[in-house]
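We treat protein structure as text, and this decision shapes the records that our systems exchange. Because each token names a local backbone shape, the row as a whole describes the fold. An entry from our holdings is shown next, in its original layout:
>
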Amino acid sequence: MSFDKSKPSVLLEFNAAAQPSLDEVKRLFKLADNEIDEKFGVIALAKQDYVIVVSAEAGKRIEKASIPGFKQNWSNPPIGPM
């Protein structure tokens, strides 16, 4: 099953020494294919700071687990015409 963009999601910010692959991020945060937006990918924000889009449920789980490298979740409201 693929990522469902119609459900709530968050931007998950994390640290890594070098830009990780999508598979490395999935392993690090124990994410299933349907919990991460693979089309968004892994985006570099600054040196050693990266962001991915995950389901809101996965974001909460990762935040509670205090996984090393996790920084914070950011809201990801839908964008559409007014």
Summary: The chain has a mean pLDDT of 93.
